[in-house]
Amino acid sequence: MRGMMSEQPLLISMLIRHAARFHSDTEIVARLVDGSVHRYTYAAAEQRCRRLAQALIRLGVEPGDRVATLAWNTHRHLELYYAVSGVGAVCHTINPRLFDDQIVYIINHARDRLVFVESSFIPLVERLRPLLPPDTRYVLLEPAETSLPLAGLHDALIDAEDGDYVWPDLDERFAAALCYTSGTTGRPKGALYSHRSTVLHAFGLASPDATSMSARDVVCPVVPMFHACAWGVPYAAAMNGTKLVLPGPRLDGASLYELFEAEGVTLALGVPTIWLGFEAHLTANKLTCSSLNRILSGGSAVPLSLIDAFENRHKISVIQGWGMTEMSPLGTAAVPKAHQLGLDNAATLAIKAKAGRPVFGVEMKIVGEGGVEQPHDGESVGELLVRGPFIISGYFEDPEATEAAVEADGWFHTGDVAAIDRDGFLHLTDRRKDIIKSGGEWISSIELETAAMAHEDVAEAAAIAIPHPKWAERPLLIVTPRPGRAPQRDALIAFLSERFPRWMLPDDVLVIEELPHTATGKIMKTRLRELYGAHRPAAW
User: How far is CA 146 from CA 34, 136, 140, in A?
Assistant: First the structure.
């Protein structure tokens, strides 16, 4: 027997329409490329989105067409999120921090019909244009000089329409957004989100044991809108009528603090490198945040020392999240359970240092040798597999990558090595390709890195394997100094010896000025292995 409930599809246009109707005067604030601040309401934003939808149709965009963006976190980028998917097309956010050949590959692979370009990225597109599809047309988000063949200017296209447009009823399983992985190994791969998956993910992101985003909050996605759809924040904010603050390109500690204070930001989301700089700015200038009370940090492990600084020095709660582009992207959030409340500071920090427990909709399991599922006892380690309604079932037009990553029953191989405890908290030990196997034993590079960053002299750390004639592999620790500090090899190894057995300690420590990062802010282990994989410690 079927239930007798409405079959109304879950559509992205429902989110902005809901915000415009029931949170009409709630603000959307954006800092633009030139530093000026633009503000309007959800009601005004939805009106512009409908007019932009009309303009897209007038430009010949049809359902299923890919419309690309090269843009910062601004109100115009937000309008594209809703207008493009709202007409049944696919919003393809391009990460401008990718290598040139990766950008060329994904624009050609996606076959983008239109590319909306921020002025900052005009030189990039002009340089790559001879390698891009010849029929691709371009729209500038603001007036600027360019040799690109233009289909118009963003605001002018909107101004030419009347807004007399009704969002169409689409199939909720229609494609809505396309995000490519950063391609740290092999070519980038496309995660093609649907309307249904995006709306369900927004529920998960806003849930009480994730961000707890509400109409009483002011949220700032510091994570770029070209990175996994800004982790779904633009959708969850509209769903909940949350004031949205978009920071544009200025993501340094001083600029973020000024914006947070001016707009009363209560919740912000970004990668650890952002929060390292922000915390350093607060400490160096003896500043207090008057409104910010929680941050969600994801993309890589958050150093325990950074969690401690925010929680105990600045009274800002840190929620560590984990996920992947293939997961829309949030999978877990490190929010304590009821029986974990009231623990001492060290125990609470230990919980917050984990990757977290799954939000509703995310299934997880770990498998060992031969694909045998491992118990959730916090000790058993294996590859992490996930599945759920906002996790990919395959890569966009890439059957080879799909076959390698997705099982027939929907389980997706994350490539992470992990354990899951009895409370459901995920503890990542490494990426499969990054784990160090010494004398038949596994050494977690993540654990070494996190411990090293607790040292007062260390800003960032990376551990890689170097070949050893007897033990096969041994760890090499590579660190960068905090401002005014000078990490010393022997002092760091002694510091780590208090936390690890001797056989897990790095055989050497290198101090460099800067670690290479991927386009999404993760440390680029492939490059470190190229540069230092042949290193031989003097003690060998």
Answer: 18, 15, 9
Q: Is 402 among the catalytic positions?
A: no
User: Residues 41, 142, 311, 442: which is the catalytic one?
Assistant: 442
Is 337 considered catalytic here?
Answer: no
Query: Hey, which residues does 67 pair with through a beta bridge?
Result: 91, 114
Name the residue among 240, 303, 304, 302 with its Cα closest to residue 266: 240
Q: How far apart are CA 526 and CA 228, in angstroms?
A: 22
62, 437, 503, 540: the catalytic one is 437
pTM of this structure: 0.88
Contact 487, 455 (CB under 8 A): yes
- CATH level 2 (architecture), domain 436-532: 2-Layer Sandwich (3.30)
Which of these is catalytic: 161, 263, 326, 449? Answer: 326
Domain boundaries, the chain: 9-23+38-198, 361-431, 436-532
Q: At what angle do helices 42-58 and 12-22 cross, to 10 degrees?
A: 140
- Distance (Å) of CA 433 to CA 45, 332, 369, 485, 503: 44, 22, 16, 32, 20
Has domain 361-431 been given CATH number 2.30.38.10?
Answer: yes
CATH of segment(s) 9-23+38-198: 3.40.50.12780
Catalytic residue among 181, 211, 450, 518: 181
Can 437 be counted among the known catalytic residues? yes
In this predicted model, what pLDDT tens digit does every residue of 2-35 receive, in sequence order?
999 999 999 999 999 999 999 999 999 999 999 9
**Sheet of strand 294-297: strand arrangement:** 37-41, 27-31, 243-246, 218-221, 267-270, 294-297, 317-323, 330-333, 357-358
Starting from the edge strand earliest in sequence, which strands make up the sheet with 412-420, in order? 363-367, 382-387, 412-420, 426-431
User: Could you report the per-residue pLDDT of 471-518, keeping only the tens digit for each?
Assistant: 888 999 999 999 999 999 999 999 999 988 888 899 999 999 999 987
What one-letter code names the amino acid at 2? R
Active site residue 231: no
Asked if 29 contacts 246 with a C-beta cutoff of 8 angstroms, the reply is yes
Q: Give 59-109 pLDDT, tens digit per residue.
A: 999 999 999 999 999 999 999 999 999 999 999 999 998 889 999 999 999
